[in-house]
Write a structure and sequence with these properties.
223 residues, alpha/beta, Glucose Oxidase, domain 1, 12 strands, elongated
């Protein structure tokens, strides 16, 4: 069993697990709605993201008020990121908000954060790809969030692309998408995920040796 007390916890998850196996074990535990929709894609599908959620709740706005810093809470969240945390920005499906870009990626990476997940848009994509910072997003657009969207609350339960995310939940993303593992079942889910990976490895080895799929499935029950 591995848990967050291990200094290698998130690195081991990123190296050995993948979204499909986490989705499968959460299905078994009755949590069948933890995968974000396929519209949420990695900016770089060669990267894996595993970390603890830090949440920001966006609301749409239609003006820039004089004397107001529209980025205040966004900046507060990014400046407070700890190693292995993921900035998760819920934009409510807005097509007007691009909350993440190069400078936020630079600041987050300097704090050893694990990545960003948003159901809004991302910009400065070439620069973010060059720095190798994991970002999962709903689209690419040049829009500044100023005058279009503003963080109303941080570190509160949110919905990101329809999936509930609580502060501290495990957020895992790779080329296949993003899974949110609720803390309430994290230990069970991870135990089952590592066991399933071991079973899949045995299944793969037998199939590579030419065994019949039906026979291998009958032995291991893994497909």
């Amino acid at each position: 069993m591995i848990d967050r007390s291990s200094p290698d916890f998130f690195a081991v998850l990123a190296r050995e697990l993948y979204t499909a196996v986490l989705s499968d074990v959460l299905d078994e535990l009755g949590y069948r709605d933890q995968a974000l929709p396929p519209s949420i894609r990695p900016l770089d599908d060669a990267l894996t993201m595993a970390g603890a959620a830090r949440t920001g709740l966006y609301r749409e706005v239609y003006e820039v008020r004089a004397g107001e810093n529209p980025y205040a809470l966004e900046i507060a969240l990014v400046d407070d990121l700890k190693p292995h945390e993921v900035a998760v920005f819920g934009c409510g499906g807005s097509t007007r908000i691009a909350p993440w870009g190069e400078l936020l990626s630079t600041a987050a990476r300097a704090r050893a954060a694990a990545g960003c997940l948003t159901d809004g848009f991302v910009r400065d994509t070439r620069a973010i790809r060059r720095m190798g910072f994991p970002v999962f997003h709903a689209g690419i657009a040049p829009l500044d969030s100023k005058g279009r969207g503003q963080v109303a609350e941080i570190d509160v339960p949110i919905a990101c692309a329809g999936v509930r995310v609580l502060p501290g939940d495990l957020v895992f993303g790779d080329a296949d998408g993003v899974i949110v593992v609720p803390q309430a079942v994290e230990g069970q889910a991870l135990d089952r995920a590592f066991a399933k990976v071991r079973g899949e490895n045995r299944t793969r080895e037998e199939l590579e040796r030419g065994a019949m799929l039906a026979d291998v499935f009958a032995r291991h029950g893994i497909l």
